[in-house]
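Q: Here's a chain of 205 amino acids. Please give me its 3D structure as tokens.
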Amino acid sequence: MFTGLVETKGRVTEMLEQPPGYRFTIASGVVAEGVKIGDSICINGCCLTVIAIKGEMLDFEAGEETLSRTNLGKIGIGSSVNLERSLAVGDRLGGHYVTGHVDALGTLIERRDDPPWAHLRFRLPSKLASQVVSKGSIAIDGISLTVVDADQDSFSVALIPHTLQVTTLGERAIGDSVNLETDVLAKYVERSLQMNSTNATGPQP
């Protein structure tokens, strides 16, 4: 479990093809401190396991499913990624609960820079629209953000200067893909409503 508060931007330094996936090394800075083999790290919103440690260099493996369903399939040597260590019991929760399980890819369709701020709009699959609401939470590339407004196939966020500086969203351009994870509470509420509706309209004895 994570909070969506990115600790640092890492940089991909090595990639090794291991069909059907990849092994890659990330220069992880502060995130490498105290990390052990087997620990979970949130990389662009995707939970992956540390498999090797060389100083601040951390190695990970990503399989075919991960590469096809997240933007980790598009990274290369030199790419920047958002990094966060898993939440420890008793830590402050400054963002919201992020599981590290990406729901879908979104696309940046509009960027309005109002220096030093920026307003970004993303297209999302319509199946997720019911889980995204104004003033609600969403994780974009692992970053906990508040939704400004939402419609049937898109939503917008306003980014403060700090977020633009310390995360990859400051680098995103129109057409770029981002990893989306909707609020886990929204998922449970939607599922509960679906089940109640099914039970109410089901066959009567």
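Q: Can you summarize the key feature?
A: DSSP finds three helices and 13 strands in the chain.
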